[in-house]
Amino acid sequence: MNVGVAHSEVNPNTRVMNSRGMWLTYALGVGMLHIVLLSIPFFSVPVAWTLTNVIHNLGMYVFLHAVKGTPFETPDQGKARLLTHWEQLDYGVQFTSSRKFFTISPIILYFLASFYTKYDPAHFIVNTTSLLTVLIPKLPQLHGVRIFGINKY
Length: 153
Known about the structure:
Belongs to the ORM family. The protein is an all-alpha fold. Helices cover 51% and strands 0% of the residues.
């Protein structure tokens, strides 16, 4: 029993991505980002798609793989402060529906960006690099691994 805590989860950060309407909100947010970038007059369609992909993947990397801890007070003796949001997601269980969704969504965005840039080599390199920087940390083999000690503490 958590006295003085408004939630019933030990760590609400673990279930927030499974909450009702979260995936729709996420997709609408990405769509709105793309519409805003398309409305800027001096951005061409390929540049807008590449920027949408890069901004999305940068945000996903920061919020899921770089920031550690939880905004909630948790009675877990500080275990959550050592984990990224991706590692806390679904209590660390691999291949859940929310993990699959957040793995597939940058891939779909990458395919869309590649298609609308007509596979231009410069855009393709930027989009591929951006995709790899967000997909590699999601691999189950890298769960809890800190490469070169980055983000260790």
